[in-house]
C-alpha cells in the first residue's frame, strides 16, 4: 500500500512532485488500510430517507413537495433560495411522509426542517438527460446545470459548487486544482473514488477547466500514501490525451488537504488573510465534488448519492459504501455490523475535524465523507486537561503559523481584542495543536467558542446600534412634535395679540364704534369664549355638515326635475350642474364620516408621558424586587397579580355595563390572570414547602 | 537705569525671568487649549456604545444615553441588568476602574434573551404598548391588532405592564443553528469522569 | 447509552506532560552517572533529599490550595525540579541546604505563581541562586574529581551520610576547586601557563579533568531529548553558539587577561546541563522559535560576561534568570508571520 512516489514512473510530466511546503503539520496514524481492503459496496434502500433543508452552506432550501406527494429518485424536492443555497433531490422513489423538524447532523445536535420520504423499494428514478457535447456548451449553461443538480462541496463545508465556479469577474483564473489529498486519518472516500473512477475524475477536470475558461494549469493534488490512486489517475490521464493536466504528489502530512495548505504546497503562494483563492487566480474543488459536477452535466444525474467511509472497530465490516443521501446513519451502521455496546462516540467526518453525533437517527448528507464508529479503546477520551507548560509544540505544528498558546490564554481570559490581534480568525481549526498538546487542552474548542463569541458580540453590536438609532429617531420625532405644538401655540398667541392690536387701533381710530362692538378686550373672557366655542364645535360642525348635505340633496332633486323637464334641449349644461352637485354631496358625506370617526380616537394622551410613566413603573418594580428571596418575589408577584386581576374584573364589569365590543377580550384576560395567579400560588406553596424542608 | 536697578537687586531678575516664563507657558497652554480642543464629549459616546441599547430604563434613566451621561458624571457603572457583567467589565475597562458586580437593586441579569410577543387574537388595539415601546418595535393602529417586530425588539419588557388585556408575553429567543456556537470548555472537569478522575477542584477554587 | 459529545480533534498524540517530564529525568542519567563516578555518593544523596523535599513541599502547598494532590504530583514536574537541583548543587552539601533549596524552588518560585506552567522563572535556578547568595561557603565547596585524589579514593557512603547529616569535616580532606574557580583565581597568568601548571587542566583529555565528562554526558542526554522532540534545537544551540563566539572573540590569544578557551567554556561548569536541561525549560523561556534563538543567545552571552567579568565563577543560573525576565519582552517582538499576512503584526495594535 505504502509505496513511495519514487517508485512511480514519472513520465511525460504527468506526475510531478509538489515543490511547496507549509509550516508545521502532524503525522497522526493514518488508519486508512482497514476501509480499503474491500471495494466500494452498496447499501440496500432504507425504509425512510431524511433530507435536511440546510445541508449546505448558505440559506436553507425551500420544499416544493408536500406531504403525501409521490416522488421519484432524482426528482427535485426542494428549491434553492437565492445564490448561496442548493437544491435537494430525492434519492429514491417513495412518498413524502412528513416535512418536520428532525435532528440534524450538526455539532450542535439541534433540529431543523427535513423532508422525510417513505421509500417504496422500487427505486424508480426520473429520466436523466445525458449530454455528450458539453464541451461545446457555454460555461454559464453548464454552471446552471450544476446548480440545478444541487452539487455542493463534498469534502466537508458544503459550499455550493456553482458559486465557486463563478469567481468574481476581475479575478482571472489561471489554475484549477482538484483536491484529492484526503489528509485526515480513516477517510478513504476520495481515495476509492480516484481509484475506481479515475476516468471520471479526469473527465471532470476537463469539464471544470472548460467552465473556468481553460486555465493554464490544471493540477490534481494527491498525497503520496495513495500510490494506487495516483497510478490509476495517471493511466486514465494517458488514455485521455489531455496534456495540460498534471498530477501533483507530495509527502503525507496533516493537514495538506486544507485548501490554503494545498495551494501553498502546489503553487507556493499564500491566500491573503480574509481573501478567497480566486484572488490569486486559483479555484479548488474536491475530487468528489468535481465528479458530482461531471455526472450532473454529462449524465444529467443530480447529486443523490455519494461514497461514504464507514469505519471503526465497532463495525464488523469497515469499507466504503455508495450510499443514498438521506440514509439514516443508524441504518447504514447496522448494515456494516454496528456493535453499539462497544462504542461511546460516533464521529461524522474525520477524527481531526469531524464532529460527534448525538443521535443515531440523523441522516447522511452531501458532505458526509466518513462515519467513524470507534471502539472504546480505539479513540479513547483524552485525559483531563492540565496547565499549559508552554512547551510550544502547538506553534511548531500550526499550519498557519499562529501562536496557539497565546490564543488559548486570551480565549480563556475572554480578551477578544487580543485574540483577534493574534489572528484568531486565520485559524483553520485543523486540530493539530490540540492533537500534540501534552497537557490535553482542548485548544480548538477554545478557539471555536471564542470565534463564536466574537461573532455574536459583533451581531449584538449591530443590533444595539440599530436600537439606538431607532430610539434616537423616536426621541427626535417627539421633540419635533413638541416643538411644533409650541410653535403653533406661539403663532396663535401672536395672532390673538395682533387681532387685539387691530381692534385697539380700530377703536382708537373710531371711538364711537366702541359702543356697537361687544366688549372683547378682556383676554380671559376671550379665551373662555373660544373654549366654549370649541366645546360647541363638534355638534355645530356636525349639524352644519348635515345641513349642507340636505341642501345639496335638495338641489340635486330640483336639478333632476329640471333635467327631466328640459330633456330635449340644453341637456349638457344641466347634467354638468348635476355632476357638480353630486360631487359636493359626496364630499360633504365623506367629511361627516371622517369627523365622526375621528371623534372616537381623539383622546390620545401625550405619548411621551406614557413612555416615561412606564419607565417609572418598571423602575419602581425592579427596585422593589431587589434583595428579595425567591419566596418574597413570588409573594410580591402574587399580590401584583391579584391587583391586576382586580383591575381586570373592574374593567370587565365596566365593559359589561357599556356592552363593550371587547367584552370577550376582557373576559379572556381575566381567566388568563386567574390561571397565572393559580400557578404562582402553587409555586409559592411549593417554595414554602421547600423552605420547610430546608431545600431552598 | 533699568539695568542698574537689576544689578543692584538681583532678585528682580529672577522675578522677571519667572514672570516671563509664566507668561510664555500660559500663552502656549492657552493656545493649545483653543487649538486642540476636544469636540463634544467622546467619553459619553464611548460609554453609550458599550451599553446594550435596550432603552429599558432599569438604571433609572430614560434610555441608555442618559445613563452614559450619568456614568460620565460619576454615577455607579453597575446599574445595567440587560448588559450584565460583560457590560460592567467593558465599562470598567474603558474607565480604568475595578469592575463591581451588578447592583441587583436594578434587576437581575437574565440568562436568556427574550422578545415581546403579542397574542394577536386577544389584542384590542389600545396602542398603549406602542406608546411604551422605546424603539418603535410594535406595529399597529388604534382598534387594529398590534404586532411586535421581533428583530427590532430589545426585550426591555416595558410594553408588558401597560397592556390592559395582558396579551403580551416575553418569550425566549429561539436559538437557531446559524447562531449556535461552541461553549468554552469547562477545564475543571473535562471528560474526566470516565477515567475515575472526577476533579473536585472546581468546587473549592 | 449516551454518546459522548466533544469538539474535534478526537484523536490525540499519546505523549502527555508527565511522559515528557519522565523523559527529561531519564535523559539526565548519563550526567548523573558521570557525576557519581567522579564525586561519589554525594549526588545521589542530593537528588534523593531534593526529591523528597520537593514532593513534600508540592503536596503541602497543593493541600493548602485545595487542589487534588495526587493528580498534580503525577505530572512529574516537581521531580524534574528536584533532579535538576540535586545535580546542580555541590555533592556533600549539608542536607538542610538541599531542603531549603527544594522548598524555595517549589513554594516560592513555582506554587506562589500558580503552579506548573505559570512560573515566570525556572524554579531550580531560583533555588540555586537563593542558596548561592545565602550560603556562599557551602555552595562553593566542591570536592576534587576521583582521578585527582591521591589514592583514587572517594568518601564512602557512611562518610557521605555523616557529611551530609552530621556536618562532619571528613569531607574537608577531599575538597578541591572547580576548573572555572581555578581559572578565575589565576588572573595573572597566561592561559597556557594555567593549563600547564594546574592538575585540573594538565591531566585532562580535552580541557578539564572530570568536568569535561560531566558536560559531555549532559550533552548526550540533551541530544537524546532533541531526538525525542521534547524541545527544539533553537535555544540550546543558540546558547552554545553565543558562548563559543563570545569566548573566541575575547580569547585574546591566551594572554593574562584572556577569558579562557572556548572549549573550557563549553566543557566546564554547568554549560551543558544549562543548555539542554535549564534553557530548554519551556515554561520560563520564550515561545516562538525566533524568540528562542534570541533567548538562548542572550543566556550564552550573559554566561560569558558573568564568568569572565563578574564575581561568580559560574553563571548559568544568573544568566537564565535574567533572560527569564526578558522572555515576555522577546515574545512580544518575535511574533511569527501568520499564513496569508504580509508581515508579523504587533499583538497590541488596536482595531481601527
UniProtKB/TrEMBL annotation, chain C:
Its EC number is 7.-.-.-. InterPro entries: NqrB/RnfD, RnfD_bac. Part of a membrane-bound complex that couples electron transfer with translocation of ions across the membrane. Its cofactor is FMN. GO terms for biological process: electron transport chain; transmembrane transport. One of its GO terms (cellular component) is plasma membrane. The chain crosses the membrane at residues 20-38, 44-62, 69-89, 205-226, 233-251, 263-280, 292-309, 315-335. NCBIfam families: PRK00816.1, rnfD. This is Ion-translocating oxidoreductase complex subunit D. The complex is composed of six subunits: RnfA, RnfB, RnfC, RnfD, RnfE and RnfG. The modification FMN phosphoryl threonine is found at residue 178. Belongs to the NqrB/RnfD family. Keywords: Cell inner membrane, Cell membrane, Electron transport, Flavoprotein, FMN, Membrane, Phosphoprotein, Translocase, Transmembrane, Transmembrane helix, Transport. Pfam families: NQR2_RnfD_RnfE. It is a multi-pass membrane protein. It is found in: Cell inner membrane. It comes from Candidatus Endobugula sertula (Bugula neritina bacterial symbiont).
Amino acid at each position: 500500500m505504502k509505496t513511495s512516489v519514487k517508485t512511480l514512473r514519472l513520465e511525460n510530466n504527468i506526475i510531478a512532485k509538489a515543490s511547496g511546503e507549509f509550516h508545521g503539520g502532524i503525522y497522526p496514524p493514518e488508519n486508512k488500510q482497514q476501509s480499503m481492503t474491500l471495494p466500494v459496496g452498496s447499501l440496500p434502500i432504507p425504509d425512510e430517507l431524511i433530507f435536511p433543508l440546510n445541508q449546505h452552506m448558505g440559506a436553507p432550501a425551500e420544499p416544493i413537495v408536500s406531504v403525501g406527494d409521490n416522488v421519484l429518485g432524482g426528482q427535485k424536492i426542494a428549491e434553492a433560495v437565492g445564490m448561496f443555497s442548493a437544491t435537494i433531490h430525492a434519492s429514491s422513489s417513495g412518498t413524502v411522509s412528513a416535512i418536520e423538524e428532525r435532528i440534524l447532523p450538526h455539532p450542535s445536535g439541534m433540529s431543523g426542517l427535513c423532508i422525510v420520504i417513505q421509500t417504496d423499494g422500487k427505486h424508480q428514478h426520473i429520466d436523466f438527460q445525458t449530454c455528450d457535447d458539453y464541451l461545446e456548451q457555454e460555461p454559464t449553461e453548464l454552471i446552471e446545470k450544476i446548480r440545478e443538480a444541487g452539487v455542493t462541496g463534498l469534502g466537508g463545508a458544503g459550499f455550493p459548487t456553482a458559486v465557486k465556479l463563478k469567481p468574481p469577474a476581475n479575478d482571472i483564473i489561471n489554475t484549477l486544482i482538484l483536491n484529492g489529498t484526503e489528509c485526515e486519518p480513516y477517510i478513504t472516500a476520495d481515495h476509492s473514488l480516484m481509484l475506481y473512477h479515475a476516468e471520471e475524475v479526469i473527465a471532470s477536470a476537463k469539464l471544470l477547466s472548460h467552465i473556468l475558461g481553460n486555465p493554464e494549469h490544471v493540477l490534481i493534488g494527491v498525497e503520496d500514501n495513495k500510490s494506487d490512486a495516483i497510478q490509476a489517475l495517471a493511466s486514465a490521464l494517458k488514455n485521455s490525451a489531455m496534456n495540460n493536466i498534471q498530477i501533483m504528489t507530495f509527502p503525507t502530512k496533516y493537514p495538506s488537504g486544507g485548501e490554503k495548505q494545498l495551494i501553498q504546497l502546489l503553487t507556493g503562494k499564500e491566500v491573503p488573510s480574509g481573501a478567497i483563492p480566486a484572488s490569486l487566480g486559483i479555484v479548488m474543488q474536491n475530487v468528489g465534488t468535481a465528479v458530482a459536477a461531471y455526472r450532473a452535466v454529462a449524465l444529467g444525474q443530480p447529486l443523490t448519492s455519494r461514497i461514504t467511509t464507514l469505519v471503526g472497530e465497532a463495525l464488523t465490516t469497515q469499507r466504503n459504501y455508495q450510499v443514498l443521501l438521506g440514509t439514516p446513519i443508524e441504518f447504514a451502521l447496522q448494515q456494516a455490523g454496528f456493535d453499539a455496546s462497544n462504542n461511546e462516540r460516533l464521529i461524522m467526518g474525520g477524527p481531526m475535524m469531524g464532529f460527534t453525533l448525538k443521535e443515531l437517527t440523523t441522516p447522511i448528507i452531501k458532505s458526509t465523507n466518513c462515519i467513524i464508529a470507534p471502539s472504546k479503546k480505539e479513540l479513547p477520551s483524552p485525559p483531563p486537561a492540565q496547565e499549559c507548560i508552554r512547551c510550544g509544540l502547538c506553534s511548531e505544528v500550526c499550519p498557519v503559523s499562529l501562536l496557539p498558546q497565546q490564543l488559548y490564554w486570551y480565549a480563556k481570559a475572554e480578551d477578544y481584542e487580543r485574540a483577534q490581534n493574534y489572528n484568531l480568525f486565520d485559524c483553520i481549526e485543523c486540530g493539530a495543536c490540540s492533537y500534540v498538546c501534552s497537557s490535553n487542552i482542548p485548544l480548538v474548542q477554545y478557539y471555536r467558542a471564542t470565534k463564536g463569541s466574537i461573532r455574536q458580540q459583533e451581531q449584538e453590536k449591530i443590533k444595539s446600534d440599530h436600537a439606538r438609532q431607532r430610539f434616537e429617531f423616536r426621541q427626535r420625532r417627539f421633540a419635533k412634535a413638541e416643538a411644533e405644538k409650541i410653535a403653533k401655540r406661539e403663532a396663535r398667541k401672536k395672532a390673538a395679540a395682533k387681532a387685539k392690536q387691530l381692534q385697539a387701533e380700530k377703536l382708537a381710530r373710531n371711538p364711537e364704534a366702541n359702543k356697537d362692538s361687544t366688549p372683547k378686550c378682556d383676554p380671559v373672557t376671550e379665551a373662555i369664549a373660544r373654549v366654549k366655542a370649541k366645546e360647541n364645535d363638534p355638534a355645530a360642525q356636525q349639524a352644519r355638515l348635515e345641513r349642507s348635505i340636505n341642501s345639496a340633496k335638495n338641489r340635486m332633486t330640483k336639478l333632476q326635475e329640471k333635467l327631466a323637464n328640459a330633456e330635449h334641449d340644453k341637456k349638457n349644461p344641466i347634467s354638468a350642474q348635476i355632476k357638480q352637485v353630486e360631487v359636493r354631496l359626496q364630499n360633504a358625506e365623506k367629511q361627516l364620516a371622517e369627523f365622526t370617526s375621528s371623534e372616537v380616537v381623539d383622546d390620545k394622551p401625550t405619548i411621551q408621558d406614557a413612555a416615561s410613566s412606564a419607565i417609572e413603573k418598571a423602575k419602581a418594580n425592579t427596585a422593589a424586587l431587589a434583595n428579595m428571596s425567591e419566596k418574597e418575589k413570588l409573594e410580591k408577584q402574587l399580590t401584583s397579580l391579584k391587583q391586576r386581576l382586580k383591575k381586570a374584573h373592574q374593567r370587565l364589569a365596566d365593559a359589561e355595563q357599556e356592552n363593550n365590543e371587547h367584552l370577550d377580550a376582557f373576559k379572556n384576560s381575566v381567566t388568563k390572570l386567574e390561571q397565572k395567579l393559580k400557578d404562582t400560588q402553587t409555586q409559592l406553596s411549593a417554595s414554602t414547602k421547600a423552605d420547610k424542608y430546608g431545600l431552598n | 537705569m533699568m539695568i542698574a536697578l537689576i544689578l543692584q537687586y538681583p532678585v528682580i531678575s529672577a522675578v522677571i525671568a519667572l514672570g516671563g516664563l509664566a507668561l510664555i507657558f500660559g500663552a502656549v497652554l492657552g493656545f493649545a487649549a483653543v487649538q486642540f480642543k476636544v469636540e463634544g464629549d467622546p467619553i459619553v459616546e464611548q460609554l453609550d456604545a458599550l451599553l446594550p441599547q435596550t432603552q429599558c430604563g432599569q438604571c433609572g434613566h430614560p434610555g441608555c444615553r442618559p445613563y452614559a451621561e450619568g456614568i460620565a458624571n460619576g454615577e455607579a457603572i453597575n446599574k445595567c441588568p440587560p448588559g450584565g457583567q460583560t457590560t460592567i467589565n467593558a465599562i470598567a475597562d474603558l474607565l480604568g476602574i475595578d469592575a463591581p458586580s451588578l447592583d441587583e437593586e436594578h434587576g437581575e441579569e437574565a440568562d436568556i434573551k427574550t422578545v415581546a410577543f403579542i397574542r394577536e387574537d386577544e389584542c384590542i388595539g389600545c396602542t398603549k404598548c406602542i406608546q411604551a415601546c422605546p424603539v418603535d418595535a410594535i406595529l399597529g393602529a388604534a382598534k387594529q391588532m398590534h404586532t411586535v417586530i421581533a428583530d427590532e425588539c430589545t426585550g426591555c419588557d416595558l410594553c408588558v405592564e401597560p397592556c390592559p388585556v395582558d396579551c403580551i408575553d416575553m418569550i425566549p429567543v429561539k436559538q437557531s443553528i446559524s447562531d449556535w456556537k461552541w461553549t468554552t470548555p469547562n477545564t475543571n472537569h473535562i471528560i474526566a469522569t470516565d477515567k475515575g478522575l472526577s476533579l473536585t477542584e472546581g468546587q473549592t477554587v | 447509552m449516551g454518546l459522548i459529545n466533544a469538539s474535534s480533534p478526537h484523536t490525540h498524540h499519546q505523549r502527555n506532560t508527565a511522559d515528557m517530564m519522565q523523559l527529561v529525568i531519564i535523559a539526565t542519567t548519563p550526567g548523573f552517572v558521570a557525576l557519581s563516578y567522579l564525586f561519589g555518593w554525594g549526588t545521589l544523596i542530593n537528588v534523593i533529599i531534593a526529591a523528597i523535599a520537593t514532593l513534600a513541599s508540592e503536596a503541602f502547598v497543593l493541600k493548602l490550595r485545595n487542589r487534588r494532590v495526587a493528580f498534580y504530583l503525577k505530572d512529574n514536574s516537581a521531580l524534574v525540579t528536584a533532579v535538576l537541583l540535586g545535580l546542580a548543587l555541590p555533592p556533600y552539601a549539608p542536607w538542610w541546604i538541599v531542603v531549603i533549596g527544594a522548598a524555595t524552588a517549589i513554594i516560592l518560585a513555582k506554587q506562589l505563581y500558580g503552579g506548573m506552567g505559570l512560573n515566570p522563572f525556572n524554579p531550580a535556578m531560583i533555588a540555586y541562586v537563593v542558596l548561592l547568595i545565602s550560603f556562599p561557603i557551602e555552595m562553593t565547596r566542591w570536592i576534587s574529581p576521583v582521578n585527582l585524589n591521591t589514592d583514587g579514593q572517594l568518601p564512602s557512603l557512611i562518610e557521605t551520610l555523616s557529611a551530609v547529616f552530621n556536618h562532619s569535616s571528613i569531607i574537608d580532606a577531599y575538597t578541591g576547586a572547580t576548573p572555572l574557580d581555578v581559572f578565575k583565581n589565576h588572573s595573572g597568568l597566561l592561559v597556557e601557563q594555567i593549563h600547564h601548571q594546574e592538575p585540573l587542566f594538565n591531566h585532562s583529555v580535552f580541557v578539564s579533568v572530570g568536568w569535561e565528562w560531566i558536560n559531555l554526558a549532559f550533552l548526550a542526554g540533551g541530544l537524546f531529548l532533541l531526538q525525542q522532540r521534547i524541545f527544539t534545537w533553537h535555544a540550546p544551540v543558540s546558547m552554545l553558539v553565543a558562548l563559543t563566539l563570545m569566548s573566541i572573540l575575547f580569547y585574546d590569544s591566551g594572554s593574562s587577561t584572556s577569558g579562557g578557551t572556548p572549549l573550557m567554556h563549553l566543557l566546564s561548569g554547568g554549560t551543558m546541563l544549562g543548555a539542554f536541561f535549564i534553557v530548554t525549560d519551556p515554561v520560563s523561556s520564550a515561545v516562538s522559535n525566533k524568540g528562542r534563538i534570541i533567548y538562548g543567545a542572550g543566556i550564552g552571552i550573559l554566561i560569558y560576561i558573568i564568568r569572565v567579568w563578574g564575581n561568580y565563577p559560574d553563571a548559568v543560573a544568573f544568566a537564565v534568570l535574567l533572560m527569564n525576565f526578558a522572555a515576555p519582552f522577546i515574545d512580544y517582538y518575535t511574533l511569527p508571520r501568520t499564513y496569508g499576512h504580509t508581515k508579523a503584526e504587533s499583538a497590541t495594535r488596536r482595531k481601527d
